[in-house]
Amino acid sequence: MIVLYENARLIDASGERFGALCTEGGVIRAAEEAFDFACDVRVNLEGRALMPAFIDLHCHLRDPGYPNKETMETGMRAALRGGYAMLCAMANTNPVCSTPELVRANHQKAEKLRLCRLMQSAAAGENLEDEMSTDYAALSGETGMLSNDGKTIFSDDFMRNLLLASKKYGFLVSTHCRPERKIVARDIELLRQTGGNLHVGHISRAQTAQMIRAAKKEGLRLTCEVTPHHLFGYDDPYRVNPPLRARADAEALVEAVRDGTVDCLSTDHAPHTEADKAAGMAGISNIEHAAQIFMKVFYENDIPLTRLSEMASLNPARRLGRKAGLLAPGYPADLVILEPEGAFTIRRADMISRSANTPFEGRAVRGRVVRTVVEGETRYDHGQAL
Ligand SMILES: [Zn+2]
Hints:
This protein has 386 residues and is α/β, with parallel strands linked by helices. The chain has a domain at 53-319: Alpha-Beta Barrel (TIM Barrel). Helix content is 30%, strand content 25%. It contains 11 helices and 16 strands. Strands 1, 2, 3, 4, 5, 14, 15 and 16 form an 8-stranded mixed beta sheet that branches. Strands 9-10-11-12-13 form a 5-stranded parallel beta sheet. A 3-stranded parallel beta sheet has the order 6-7-8. Strand 2 and strand 3 (27-32) form a beta hairpin. Helix 4 (156-169) crosses helix 5. Residues 149-150, 176, 201-202, 241 line the site of zinc ion. Zinc ion binds at residues 149-150, 176, 201-202, 241.
């Protein structure tokens, strides 16, 4: 089936132009000013934005094990509402995703659901501890990401071996660093010694951004991510891990987004029940509002949507070694149609994630996702006439 999206603001990391985009069989065929050939479906975007769908390098789908918080299905439906076509789900499930069989089972589940694409991250250590390694050779046959997210890797030897294995087998190591500055400094030093594929998860402090900026200047190859809540929230005791910091930290993170120090926008979507939050668990359910928070922050700081696309689509795709994240021929037809302007208010009552744990009730954000297309199929449609 040939689908033509016309009268669109075509926005990706390479720039913005007005025109039309044609997809066929789940793949982008061409992006031009206009097309004159026959197509099966024409979608008039009436000036709305068309971007590569978002890729989240960091979320928690709680599947298997915690269906009262979220399931793969509820999490993916929330993600589609947020414009996401691909998710990297962390391994702190029950049981922990520490074997090739468990990782494969989640990939098969995702294929059956036909909602988002999934990369199930595998645990780097048994029970997410930094004592006994999981089987890196076997796991790298099933997934491109290993992480003990939720827990810090304190052991220097464990981290060194993990980085060496990442180089040998080609997977990405996503880290969770508490205390942040100390562990990030240690990981940068290990990277300097051993090399490897290091991706620093959810940085939250001005000084961490500065360390990573310096490491990149030195020529070290590493990437890092920032979440919507660490850009948008500060001086707020709401429990997330890492915590929301001071206003100066949030402002420094915005500058690190602007100057390229931060590579990726990730959600760290972490749904919890009200009872679990009351018991002190850390996390925010945010995947359905993430893009609206990013659009507000980027707009207020005069950072263009082309940069948002680079950070939310192209850079995550590259880090996973995937050809995705651009509106170019041969790229997957994973698309998001957006209205980047207009006010929107976050309401817990409207959320479709199974958990509505957010400190942002009543907060004004910007724009909305109208439609999300994965593999050429519309998998979320806001329902407005198009
Ligand atoms: Zn984490």
